Amino acid sequence: MIEAQLLTKRYGEKTAVDGLDFTVKPGTVTGFLGPNGAGKSTTMRMIVGLDAPTSGSVTVNGRHYAEHRAPLQEVGALLEAKSIHPGRSAYNHLNALALTHGIPRSRVDEVIDLAGLGSVAKRRAGAFSLGMGQRLGIAAALLGDPQTVMLDEPVNGLDPEGVLWIRNLLTSLAAEGRTVFVSSHLMSEMALVADHLIIVGRGRLLADTTVQDLVRQAGGDTVKVATEDPARLRDVLAGPGVDIVGQVGSEELHVTGLTTREIGLKAAEHGIPLFGLSARTVSLEEAFMDLTRDAVEYHGTTTAIDTLGRVA
Ligand SMILES: Nc1ncnc2c1ncn2[C@@H]1O[C@H](COP(=O)(O)OP(=O)(O)OP(=O)(O)O)[C@@H](O)[C@H]1O
């Protein structure tokens, strides 16, 4: 469990983190989202005591990080800045960490396997690709078998296989009852792994919500369905809490209140062939952009916002 109370960090004139109040609970993956410069890394650094709050506080499992007797066994963190000696092998790096924290050597082999680093563990870490470096950072974070795991942009530099590995890893860590806190500025990636979202912009809390609620709020539970006989499908799908919109002469209906699965099953039950059945997928990105629009520090001229047909 991570608890932030009025957490604030100023660097001179700049307020990087501005009165954040949030709780990260065990047993789920919590995504920490926000545009570049929103204050995510600064918040994470304060959680593990690498930066001191200007005011407010943040605790892990009820204590400040520095007050834990065995911090590595309490919270494992992957932060953006790496501190690995380039001449040292992955194995030696993890072994040194284990030795200084009273962690058995057998755990080093376990995390090397877990991170898929077996074949490169004896190589110099300085020669590692970005993706291998990320895997080593994650291995180090898991070394103490911590109850709380915090990763800053873990998919950075990973290939598709690595991205999938991270997704499965995060989900299984949460399923084991751990607190999993992961930052990203990519809504699409977070939507695939996170159950809960904490969204920040310019250091302030913009939303503390479930993925499901954010989708709902953005109208993302609309399903687009096409059939030769939309009038009949409309009759079949009609019911309490179901809203159906269609245009005269169009084979397409927009349905809210039913999932793609429910619509597909009902149509099949009544022998109505469907030509298309899809949930709106861009709405999560749209919801994120709507929320953070005023909080983006650096607007590009040709960003993803343009591809959605919207102007920042
Ligand atoms: N040591 C520092 N000195 C001065 N300003 C800083 C320092 N660290 C961060 N900042 C500023 O604080 C703000 C928040 O930065 P932070 O790195 O926490 O954001 P972020 O959400 O992690 O961004 P990104 O997604 O780009 O990593 C930024 O405007 C940044 O320039």
Number of helices: 12
As a percent range, the share of strand residues is: 25-35%
Radius of gyration: 23 Å
Q: What's the CATH H-level homologous superfamily of the largest domain?
A: P-loop containing nucleotide triphosphate hydrolases
Q: What is the ordering of alpha helices and beta strands?
A: EEEHEHEHHHEHEHEEHEHEEHEHH
CATH topology of the largest domain: Rossmann fold
Assigned CATH architecture of the largest domain = 3-Layer(aba) Sandwich
Domain unit count: 2
Strand order of the largest sheet: 5-6-7-3-8-9
Helix content: 25-40%
What CATH first level of the largest domain would be assigned? Answer: Alpha Beta
Structural class: alpha/beta
Instruction: Catalogue the unreliable spans.
Output: 301-312
Please state the overall shape, judged from the principal axes of the Cα atoms: globular
What is the mean pLDDT? 87
Let me know the largest β-sheet: 6 strands, mixed
Bound molecules: adenosine-5'-triphosphate
End-to-end Cα distance, whole Å, is 36 Å
Number of strands: 13
Pfam families: ABC_tran
Keywords: ATP-binding, Nucleotide-binding, Transport
InterPro entries: AAA+_ATPase, ABC_transporter-like_ATP-bd, P-loop_NTPase
Protein name: ABC transporter ATP-binding protein
